[in-house]
Amino acid sequence: MQRRDFLGVLGGAAAWPLAARAQQPERMRRIGALMNLAADDPLAQIDVAGFVGGLQERGWSLGGNLQIEYRWGAGDENLYRKYAAELVALAPDVILAIGGTTVGALQLATRTVPIVFVKVTDPVSRGLVASLARPGGNTTGFLQYEFGTAGKWLELLKQIMPKVKRAAVIRDVSETSGIGQMAAIQAVAPSFGIDVSPIDARDAGEIERAITEFARGSDGGLIVTESGKSIVHRKLIITLAAEHRLSAVYPYRYFVTDGGLISYGPDEADSFRLATGYVDRILKGGKPADLPVQAPTKYEMVINLNTAKAFGLTVPPSLLARADNVIE
After folding, report:
1. 247 three-state secondary structure
2. Full-model pTM
């Protein structure tokens, strides 16, 4: 073989590894997702669809360059701890956490795997992040509520039911956010002339007994604060409110589409869309410590006129004009 031919063969052989590397498929990335509902809950499927859709818009393809492992806690703290450990053992690139209790369980399992949360109220007081601007550690995400919003719920209850004198506030006492939301409601209650009392949402039986007892009085209404347990037991709460004809204000749209009276709260689809942005940045090398915790940017009010009619209520035109959606 002549020298130039030999060098040509040698050069081609040296190029083979480069060509092989160039043709290798993109590395599969893995996301863990610790969900706060049951897998068959229609709301959970909406959340999943929004999350996956947001990732696809950013160029990620399920089964192509991305895999998602889900675990469904359904409001059970023991399951959260079990599934948090399972997800961490899979060594994902990032974990999506729905609700503050799921974040706490994940942080017990890892302080290194990046965590992006949604539907969390007051993560600083809960010790989940160091501060909103500089979360530090391996965790960041998106607030579900600022406490001042809770006072708005009492205002709406007074507007839609002017004669209300008492309000039962359904909260999760095991969460600091439940205590904070209750405090915000109590702070504005004197200005509306309403006595407020808590209902602790530990389980379905306690919720049913407390609402039934409260309904024995007159001129009463309900406020359902944001918590994982109120979401898990939402159909029970809506049913009891209808049974006892208790006007109720809820934290999310889907309470009203399921038959509740009125809701005011953040646009959850927007929260998941924003969360996919943080997940995308982390998959591309970003650090949770450098991504500030963000507050909701879009709120919506929804009114169910069918429920108002069943309760014998006339919704003020001024309230209807402010509603983002009216169910008739």
Report:
1. strand
2. 0.77
